[in-house]
Amino acid sequence: MRIRTATPIALAAATALAGSLLATAAPASAAAHQGGLHFGFVQYDGPGKDNRSTKSLNAEWVNIHNNGKKKVQLKGFKVKDKTGYTYTFGSYTIGAGKTVKLRTGKGKNASGTVHWNRGSYVWNNTGDTARLIKPNGKLQDSCSWKKSTKANNGAKNCH
Questions:
Q1: Distance in angstroms (rounded) separating the CA atoms of residues 74 and 93
Q2: Which of 5, 8, 38, 113 is buried most deeply by CB count within 10 Å?
Q3: Neighbour count for residue 122 (Cβ, 10 Å)
Q4: Per the record, which residues fall in region Disordered (predicted)?
Q5: Phi, psi at 110, each rounded to 5°
Q6: What mean pLDDT is predicted for residues 46-74?
Q7: Sign (positive/negative) of CA torsion 152, 153, 154, 159?
């Protein structure tokens, strides 16, 4: 079979069209998070059976993203669910453009990952809300979801 290559003019036109389609496909909500801390992706129903093992508990997590231009010290920031389970950050600096993953279970904190060190689940598979609270008590961001299904795989993109 012989494969033809596109002519330079046709290739340029296709590239321009693709670029314009991509530019209009950006979600409108992306602009709302410019220049600050916000929830990114949440895995509220980890894959596999909920058996309270460390592996299962750590398969449940939330990402916090710093979309700002400067690093942010998270000491005193809180992550809360609807029922009031609360994680309070100790001294942790998140760099500009970086993400930190807060895992529910036990483990050693490292760059990019911290652990709540719980022995039970936080995020409800039937629907919940994650709230990011500033040290002064004001709401920084929140993200809500409904029931875990095969279609959403127990995950939510909060952007």
A1: 6
A2: 38
A3: 23
A4: 139-159
A5: -145, 175
A6: 96
A7: negative
Give the predicted TM-score (pTM) of the model.
0.79
**72 pairs with which residues across the strands?**
94
| Edge-to-edge order in the sheet of strand 113-115 | 113-115, 99-103, 61-66, 37-43, 155-157
DSSP state string for 41-61: EEE-S-SS-----HHHHHT-E
Q: Which residue has the tokens 């709302």?
A: 32
Identify the structural domains of the chain with CATH numbers, from first to last. 37-157 (2.60.40.1260)
Percent of all residues in the chain with a pLDDT value above 70, rounded to a whole number: 78
From CA 139, how far away is CA 102, in angstroms rounded? 18
Residues 60, 50: Cα–Cα separation, whole Å: 10
Q: Which residue has the tokens 């961001």?
A: 141
Q: Residues 32-42: pLDDT tens digits?
A: 544 599 999 99
